[in-house]
Amino acid sequence: MCGRLNVIDDPAVRELCEALGIKLYPQDDSSVAQQVMLFNRFTRVANQVSIIREVCGQRQLDQAIWWLLLEPTESSFKASKWTSFNTRYDKLNVPGSAGFRAFRHSRCIVPVKGFGETQGKGAQAVYTDFTAEFGALALGGLCREWRHEKTGECVLSCSIITLPPHPKLFNYHQKSSPLMLRQDDDTMHMWLDPSLSDVSVFNDLMSPHLPHNLIAQQIDKPASFQGVKLPELILAD
């Protein structure tokens, strides 16, 4: 999966957050604190992205650097030299790997409207944007907390789990596909439960699966995302 996300301020994205217990606009209840989500049509790797996680039995919306491994600077943190905005499914159970512990104790969900893939390089690169035809996508991710030794600053980082390429997406991207969690059962709630450390229950999720219809459209380039071909509908599995 390539490094861009579509997190527009869409009713479906807000509904997904609310289904997970996150109230973005609790205007009807002044006792509920408003949680701020970062909306951006083109979110790049190593930038801030909003994630949902569960801490001490409470769901919360946090901002995380989309790059799981960080390294300290003089006063804060920056993305490590080791590429880690994605975590491969076949590394999750490798002791000592970047995502091994996080997979067991600090999973998160990245709510998005869509994501982007790139096929080829340089002048031959073909860019495709994917959006949920209906609803939003709940991408399965991992997160880690980092505390700076000098300043005491606490920073959150995250990655998105990637699976083998899905056959229906193979014409657009041949390396991998993101983990898209089902929303019609208990999958999301199990994923967010930090007490669930027996990750064998997630074995079925480690095969590529499309739980939603996707609309695929080739674009000119990620920063301008102007369509250059008619959109195509990819049906859910």
From TrEMBL:
UniProt entry tagged with the keyword Cell membrane: no
Entry keyword set: Covalent protein-DNA linkage, DNA damage, DNA-binding, Hydrolase, Lyase, Protease
EC number: 3.4.-.-
One Pfam family of this chain: SRAP
Keyword presence, Lyase: yes
InterPro entries given in the database record: SRAP (IPR003738), SRAP-like (IPR036590)
Family indicated by similarity: Belongs to the SOS response-associated peptidase family.
PANTHER family: ABASIC SITE PROCESSING PROTEIN HMCES, DC12-RELATED
Protein name from the UniProt record: Abasic site processing protein
Source organism per UniProt: Paraglaciecola algarum
